[in-house]
Amino acid sequence: MFLCAAGWALAAGAAEIRHSPLYPGKDQEIQIEIRGASQGATLHWGVNAVGLEWEQPIPEYRPPGSGLEGVAVRTEMQGPDERGTLRARLGPFNHTNQPVRALNFAIHWKDETWSNKDEKNYNIPVSFGRIETVPEQPTINDRVVVRVRRAAP
Q1: 76, 108 in Cβ contact below 8 A?
Q2: What is the pLDDT along the chain (153 residues), one digit of tens a residue?
Q3: How many CA atoms does the CB half-sphere of 27 hold within 13 Å?
Q4: Is the omega angle on the peptide bond into residue 153 within 30 degrees of 0, that is, cis?
Q5: Among positive and negative, which fits the CA dihedral 48, 151, 24, 58?
Q6: What is the pTM of this model?
């Protein structure tokens, strides 16, 4: 279920990129959605960017069927469905051989155009923290539950 999201408006204004959970931890999968899409797309992604330079994700992080282009992984997005939504699911990013502090990506559309947040690329911080709140963005009257995950042995 897509519980919460942060959105970026695309340059064309017709589609919106969202992700869930809003504040992902290293042990969680991240779902990326593009709403309002009229064509298919490929997620062009890496991790731990410094400036515009990404690290190549280790093989354990790459979904089946993904390919490589330089240091970037290319993962075909599912869809668009009948509502114009594309989806890709990545993670968890908890392998000890490559700690991940951020997921970085651009969208390569089927018509060969790109969406890359004005050439800065999209960035989703990944937390090493063990504390999470539900809901992630509470309103003034919401009951808030704080969970503390156990540390790995």
Answers
A1: no
A2: 333 344 444 544 567 899 998 889 899 999 999 999 999 999 999 999 998 899 999 999 999 999 999 999 999 999 999 999 999 999 999 999 999 999 999 999 999 999 987 777 999 999 887 677 788 778 888 888 887 766 554
A3: 9
A4: no
A5: positive
A6: 0.80
